[in-house]
Amino acid sequence: MTSRIHCSEDAQQIALRRLPKLISGFVEGGTGREVGVLNNTAAFDRIKLQARVLRKVDPRSTVQRFLGQEYSVPFGVAPMGMCNVVHPRADQFLAGMAKNHNIPLGLSTAASTAVEKMQAIAPDRVWFQLYLVPPIDHAMSLVDRAEAAGCKTLVLTVDVPQISRRIRDLRNGFEVDFKMGPRQFFDLATHPVYSLRMLWAGRPEPAHFPKTGSKFDRSASRALADWEFLQNLRDRWKGHLILKGVTSIPDALRIKDIGVDAIWVSNHGGRQLDSAPASIDILPDMRHALGPEYPLILDSGVRGGEDILKALVCGANFVMLGRPWLYAIGAEGESGLESLREALTFDLSAAMAQIGVTNISEVTKENLVSFSE
Ligand SMILES: Cc1cc2nc3c(=O)[nH]c(=O)nc-3n(C[C@H](O)[C@H](O)[C@H](O)COP(=O)(O)O)c2cc1C
Q1: With a 6 A CB cut-off, is 321 part of the ligand 1 pocket?
Q2: Cα 339 to ligand 1 centre (Å)
Q3: How many beta carbons lie within 10 A of that of residue 162, not counting itself?
Q4: pTM of structure
Q5: 319 lines ligand 1 (CB under 6 A)
Q6: How far, in Å, from the CA of 321 to the mean position of ligand 1?
Q7: CB proximity list for 83: less than 8 A, separation 6 or greater
Q8: CATH for 8-371, among 3.30.420.10, 3.90.1150.10, 3.20.20.70, 3.30.70.2740?
Q9: pLDDT tens sequence across 17-27
Q10: How much of the chain, in percent, has pLDDT values that exceed 90?
Q11: All structural domains of the chain with their residue ranges
């Protein structure tokens, strides 16, 4: 079947039709009035790239080295909890893409597929993402588990000291301990393909939590992560350590001083603080403050190949996307994911040709319109 996904907006539109509101709202929604979600994409649209002409732009390479590893593209999958509510095999599809196309994959603490399984599918591509949810012993056992599974990169997410209210989830009745009421029944009944598939596969369960005892509590405070904890984690974790969800320059400078290997500039896709500035707007100052060599990742609002290039131009070394991958899976399953990956890669490479560069290391802030000679 020919894919109808030519860009992430196609994936979003199709997914919104094929998924129950309960699920599409969980993926698409943000906190508050969702001004932050809109602002994240609008901020990319305000950035303009300078086209250059008459340069030799063939062949081009999208290969990027990051934290000592080579990836085929400078973009990857941001960690997302409960991906398997979109499709029972969503995690596996993502891991398959990570392996087949050499792309890094963030695996959430709240994932429905265990780190051991994901790492077996995509060795050396899985970055385990840690939320410090209580009890702390259990959270630390996840760090050991990720290490034993062979993960070389740990991502500590620090922008969820308290999970914010997502109004759509409240309206639609999206809860981890799912309860079926008349609204949810109607929603699921009017999406029979989705509902039968999920019924057949069984309800996805959090893979990194026992079913009893320290079971996953989505609303639990994650404020246990503080500066002292970070120092301890740095001393304990010998692999690469990345801090995700940083938007303040003073925080970033202190994190760098502690010896964290990379900072992930993110406002959690507008899901935590509605009035947070767009991460892409913060990035140039962050790059300036941390110096030209310090590894920086960016996410929140990246929707196309040109956005990826804009993030690189503004100072990112690596760029992550969240929702678009889930939209693609919700729209067309594994083949939808492949269509989106192809579109992003093609558009990134084509945009590189437009600005006259042949590899990622040539991308600089000189490629912005405002910096052109
Ligand atoms: C459905 C969903 C679940 C998420 N779960 C997590 C999570 O478990 N851990 C985490 O660090 N970030 C999580 N995030 C945030 C993403 O990692 C990422 O920061 C955000 O989606 C980027 O914005 P974008 O969706 O506009 O690309 C989640 C995002 C979504 C959409």
Answers
A1: yes
A2: 21
A3: 11
A4: 0.97
A5: no
A6: 8
A7: 90, 91, 94, 108, 111, 112, 326, 329
A8: 3.20.20.70
A9: 999 999 999 99
A10: 92
A11: 8-371
Q: Which residue has tokens 């994911």? A: 337
Instruction: Determine whether the shortest distance from the Cβ of 153 to ligand 1 is under 6 A.
Output: no
Distances (CA, A) of 90 to 82, 156, 187: 9, 22, 21
Q: Are strands 64-66 and 69-71 parallel, antiparallel or unpaired?
A: antiparallel
The dihedral formed by the CA atoms of 301, 303, 306 and 309, expressed in degrees to the nearest 10: 50
Beta bridge partners of 157: 244
Extended beta strands in 64-163, E state: 64-66, 69-71, 75-77, 105-107, 126-130, 153-157
Q: Which atom of ligand 1 is nearest to the CA of 302?
A: 27
Residue 120 and residue 124: Cα distance in Å, rounded? 9
Q: Using the 8-state DSSP alphabet, how is residue 133 labeled?
A: P
Q: What's the rounded mean pLDDT across residues 294-310?
A: 98
Using DSSP's 3-state secondary structure scheme, residue 291 falls into: coil
**Residue 331 tokens, joined:** 């729209």
Give yes or no for residue 215 having a pLDDT over 80. no
